[in-house]
Amino acid sequence: MKNIFLFILALGLTFNLFGQTDAIIMEIDGKPVTKSEFLQIYLKNNNDPKYDKETMDEYMELFRKFKLKVAEAEALGYDTVPRLKKELEGYRKQLATPYLTDSSMNQIMVKESYDRVSEEIRASHILLRLNPDVIPKDTLLAYNRLIKMRKEIMDGKDFEMVAKGKSGSEDPSVKDNGGDLGYFTAFQMVTPFEDAAYTTPIGEVSMPIRTKFGYHIIQVVDKRPARGTITAAHIMVTKGDNSGAEEEGSSASAKKKIDEIYMRLKNGEDFEGLAKQFSDDPSTNSKGGVLPTFGSGTTTRMVTNFEDAAFSIQEDGGICEPIQTQYGWHIIKRLNLLPLASFDKMKKELENRVSRDDRAKRTQDSFVKKLKQDYSYKAKSVRRVNYLKNVIDSTYFAGEFKADQVKKNKLLYKIDGQKIRQSEFAGFLAKTYRTQPQQSVETLVDNQYKEFEKSQILGYEESKLEMKYPAFKSLMQEYHDGILLYEVMSDKVWNKGMKDTTGLKTFFENNREDYMWGARYDAMVYECLNMDVAKQVSDMTKNDTITSKHVIDKINAESQLNLSVKTNKFEVDKTPFLTNANLKKGINPVYSFEEKYYVVKVENILPAGMKELNETRGAVTSDYQNYLEKEWLMEIEKKHPVIIYTEVLYNLNK
């Protein structure tokens, strides 16, 4: 979703239609905006609403600017650009999906999904791949091969041996895992595979099942209750130590470092403090290593051995021995373990997952049946469908069928007064030949007619959504305005601010005093574990023949925790450990800051001064874009007259 939608949502711009008797609070280009529309926006964003003049003026100003930008986009014809119309139609398809399903069937699927999320399955499988265009003969061959392998397993042959054997599984991972998929739960496999796994008893082997990958047989090895969710913290050490040395620390030094940290934890040192001091995970080290909650029913997943190690910790506050993942070495601390959330708490998330899953197709099929009843569906003779079986031959699968080959155009069915004829079905067949596997013409026509009828009926219902559901109409208006706003802002402000190098340079020259360096040290900073280390470093750095690499190699020979080195031009007022140090050029005396000890070699002291454009281009570009936006707003304010009815605005709560 484009960033502009976040802006719209922040303002709460979910437009609804209200009655014509609603008071008008604003007009733009003569188009009214109602009191109820503005009030809805305001209340959505304020749990404790205020109605004083200052607050009302503030909200109205945000709303006015938004409306002005959208009005200008429409005036410039952005709403007619094919690319943007196509983008909006794509969003419409997504937003329409929840309105085109059987809500009662959907709730059954949601409840079933929760039951499955509550249980984890360990299973192995054998896969025989099938291309989408496979002929029935090859489908039958694959099916019979799996039936034979299933019989061998049921007769006592080891599943892994069969999977790895000649003419066995065609899953590339079988050579490493013997077909073992480990533990999984709902939504982690394609739906037909999941259905078979959850309905096969432990120790049994399923009959062959078809998925988009081919045919599978599944042996269920174990079922266990979901482990729940866990909140944990970790200390991570990557292979590199970011020391600035020419060689960044091997796997061996990383292992040595994590082992040292582990021993310090075992000796009673604080996990949070060590995470802040030594963890290489930049997203968590400042928070003491705390990770997002993960486990059953969550969207956050960790790599398998990390999860297993975390869940193996027996109590809150416990830690595991160092483990290795592809990201490095970790020590994990369990903070809190919770059982799977209740159905009520997970319901919304499960509804969203079901709507994006293969399960949605089942609810659509049920929904189509209801629509047929609601819209008085009446089908004509089946012979009118069968007529096409005599028109189409095997050349269809090569794309040689044309809709005009169908000479008749009789009625196929009526729904809500709409008449659907043979020519429309012929057009559907002509467009969809690429997706069809080789099959008999009779099977093709029967299957495709079901899809055609379904797509037509759902399409008709979709065309009526704005009229039937005000909430859908409001949401579509939001997306419409959001797309236009993003595009016009990109053209008039954001992209222009980045591409207009001449204008950017002129803006910078006119505002140079806003872009200043504070005093800086061009320095090499040695961050030491304790005073003893700092004294050793200080003595070594006084010898000009000794490089920083030599210092690191010497000091960290026994422990990777002793020393780290940073080289930069540090802005004094923005670098806490330098702010009050009062350093001089050359090697400075050892000093401490927040339980760390510093030896600083200052190469040069750079006084405060103006920045050059290449030193602050990002900040200048942002400021230039803000300037362009203000200028543009002043321009479009003259083009689109706005009237605000303050007597309505200041009496919203009356």
Beta strand %:
15-25%
- The Cα radius of gyration reads 34 Å
| Mean of residue pLDDT values | 89
Instruction: Provide the structure class.
Output: alpha+beta
Task: Say how many strands there are.
Answer: 21
> Helix amount, in percent?
40-55%
Distance between the termini: 38 Å
CATH architecture verdict of the domain at 229-339: Roll
CATH class of the domain at 229-339: Alpha Beta
Give the count of helical stretches.
24
What does it look like?
- The chain has 24 helices and 21 strands.
- It is an alpha+beta fold and 654 residues long.
- Among the domains are: 119-225, Chitinase A, domain 3 (Roll), CATH 3.10.50; 229-339, Chitinase A, domain 3, CATH 3.10.50.40; 375-463, no CATH class; 516-610, Chitinase A, domain 3, CATH 3.10.50.
- Strands 15, 16, 17, 18 and 19 form a five-stranded antiparallel sheet that branches. A four-stranded antiparallel sheet has the order 4-3-6-5. Strands 8-7-10-9 form a four-stranded antiparallel sheet.
- Strand 1 and strand 2 form a beta hairpin.
- The longest helix is centred in the C-terminal third of the chain and has 30 residues, at 470-499.
- The chain is globular and about 100 Å long.
- The two termini are 38 Å apart.
- Mean pLDDT is 89; it is low at 1-20 and 241-249.
Question: Secondary-structure blueprint of this entry?
Answer:
Blueprint: H1 3-11, E1 24-28, E2 31-34, H2 35-44, H3 53-75, H4 82-96, H5 103-117, E3 119-129, H6 136-154, H7 159-164, H8 174-177, E4 180-184, H9 191-199, E5 209-211, E6 214-225, E7 229-237, H10 251-266, H11 271-278, E8 294-295, H12 304-312, E9 323-325, E10 328-338, H13 343-355, H14 359-374, E11 378-379, H15 383-386, E12 411-415, E13 418-421, H16 422-431, H17 441-463, H18 465-468, H19 470-499, H20 501-510, E14 516-517, E15 520-528, H21 531-541, H22 548-555, E16 563-571, E17 586-587, E18 591-593, E19 596-606, E20 609-610, H23 617-639, E21 642-644, H24 646-649
Antiparallel strand pairs: 1-2, 1-21, 3-4, 3-6, 5-6, 7-8, 7-10, 9-10, 11-12, 12-13, 14-20, 15-16, 15-19, 17-19, 18-19
Helix pairs in contact: 1-19, 3-19, 3-23, 4-19, 5-13, 5-14, 14-17, 19-23
